[in-house]
Design goal:
The protein is mainly alpha-helical. The protein is built from nine helices and three strands. It has helices at residues 2-17, 22-34, 55-65, 76-89, 98-111, 113-127, 141-148, 153-169, 174-198; strands at 42-44, 47-50, 53-54. It has a three-stranded antiparallel β-sheet. Helix 2 crosses helix 4.
Length: 204
């Protein structure tokens, strides 16, 4: 676990030092998020899923880009392609700090768009109540601007972790999947707080 974290930190800092663009940062973030997903075909809430890609997202992607991918035969490369599209389509690539981008993308990817936006907005509402954040389940320009204005990243990471766990506990499927979800969420909390501690204001 520690070795994996060191590699991740090294890669993210290399993107700054060597002048890589946002494409390289997206690749690293997507690799991390997909590492928490399995390559087995699973059924959740009557929906087939593989590599964390649910079938309805796959069908939407096929229609939009004239692809013919199938959930049962979905490859990791195809899953990465769809994940990158989602990251940009959800406007998460507009988030300045890579660790915040990674944390929030994992919520969207694992829980869906609405859940991701609601959890993020609830955390921001607690972090900066004076902004008047409306929890409407839409990640718009105002929400993104407030995310990018965050200064105390460790506090924000704690708040968004608490809101994510609280949201998942409200789901009927918590009893079945809760332990795995909580382990994943807390792993991000530890990792990203460590990343925030070594950040000096750069977009790592």
């Amino acid at each position: 676990m520690l070795e994996k974290f060191v590699i991740l930190i090294t890669l993210l800092y290399s993107t700054t030092i060597l002048g890589y663009d946002d494409t390289r940062i997206r690749e690293i973030i997507i690799s991390e998020v997909l590492s928490h997903e399995g390559d087995k075909l699973v059924r959740t809430q009557k929906e087939l899923s593989k590599y964390g890609i649910r079938n309805f997202l796959l069908l939407d992607y096929n229609k939009k880009f004239e692809k013919n991918y199938e959930i049962k035969t979905l490859t990791e490369e195809q899953a990465r392609e769809i994940a990158e599209h989602l990251l940009v389509d959800y406007r998460l690539d507009e988030i300045k700090h890579s660790y915040s981008q990674m944390m929030i993308f994992d919520i969207f990817f694992n829980g869906g768009y609405n859940a991701g936006a609601v959890v993020t907005q609830r955390a921001l509402k607690r972090y900066r109540p004076s902004e008047g954040i409306v929890v409407d389940g839409v990640l718009g320009s105002k929400t993104i601007a407030v995310i990018n204005s965050v200064q105390d990243h460790e506090k924000f990471i704690d708040l968004i972790t608490e809101e994510r766990i609280a949201y998942y506990k409200s789901l009927n499927s918590w009893e079945q999947y809760g332990k795995g979800w909580e382990k994943r969420i807390n792993a991000y909390r530890v990792k990203l707080k460590q990343m925030a501690m070594v950040d000096n204001g750069n977009r790592i």
